[in-house]
Every structure is written in C-alpha cells, then in structure tokens.
Design brief:
Chitinase A, domain 3, Thrombin, subunit H, mainly beta, four-stranded antiparallel beta sheet
C-alpha cells in the first residue's frame, strides 16, 4: 500500500489535472473540462510557473484554487510591443477585426503572433504581447493522477 506522501506531486512527477482558468472579472479564458486533462511533468517548465507551483505539493484527488500574479503567468504587458501599421500594408480585401490574431515575421525571421486591437481607415494597431500578459489569473485545479 502506498503511503500518502507517495501521491503528493513533486518535481519530476508526471501529473494529470483538470483546470478552469478565470480572469479577475470571472471570465473563463480556458478550461480542460469536457476535454482530455492537461498532462505535464512538474519541474520541466512546460507550463506557466505559477500554475506549476500551484500543483506542486498537491495530493492525487485534491482540488484547490490558486491565484497567479501576472509575473508568474504570462508576464507584464509591454507598451512597446503595441505597434501601429499603416492600413495600406495589408491587402485591401483583408477584413481585419478587433480581437483577430495574425502571424507576422519578425526581422529575425521568427514568426510572431499579434492581436488586432484597433482598426481604422489609415492604420491598424497590433499587440504582440500574449493576450493574457499583465493579467492575474485564477485557476481551479483538480489533480487527477501523479505518476
């Protein structure tokens, strides 16, 4: 029979969790409910640091709620990553909508995902920050398995 401490999640363990992530206003931005659980290895940096820290030390079968500051999630929102591009730099038949995500190629050749945050006749404002940057996140976490 396993001792209780053997089921406690720690670095190096492969875990399966169900989660629901919410913003401060209660809006759900992501959830594994109704899908396969999230599976990852603790300590490998596969997920945001605050989520990983929240799972670390939980016991299989345990549920809890953790609030993660933006610094332990997707980082701060950097104003310099919001750029204005002349509208004529986009195809004239391209229907740009606020909230739409586009891919751009950086000078380095790297693909960067940007979100359209404003559009008018003369320019398009794009934000290269992660959509959750600068936001504190609350997760309801249920630890299903520890291997």
């Amino acid at each position: 029979m396993k001792e209780e401490s053997m089921t406690q999640a720690k670095d190096g363990d492969k875990v399966k969790v169900h989660y629901t992530g919410k913003l401060d206003d209660g809006t759900v931005f992501d959830s594994s409910i109704g899908r396969e659980p999230l599976e990852f290895t603790l300590g490998e940096g596969q997920i945001i640091p605050g989520f990983e820290a929240g799972v670390n030390g939980m016991n299989a079968g345990e549920s809890k709620t953790v609030t993660i500051p933006s610094t332990q999630a997707y980082g701060p929102h950097f104003d310099e990553m919001v750029i204005k591009v002349p509208r004529d730099q986009f195809p004239s038949d391209m229907d740009l909508e606020v909230g739409e995500q586009l891919q751009m190629r950086h000078e380095s050749g790297q693909i960067v995902v940007v979100t359209v945050v404003d559009v008018d006749d003369s320019q398009v404002t794009l934000d290269a920050n992660h959509p959750l940057a600068g936001k504190d996140l609350t997760f309801n976490i249920e630890l299903l398995e520890v291997d």
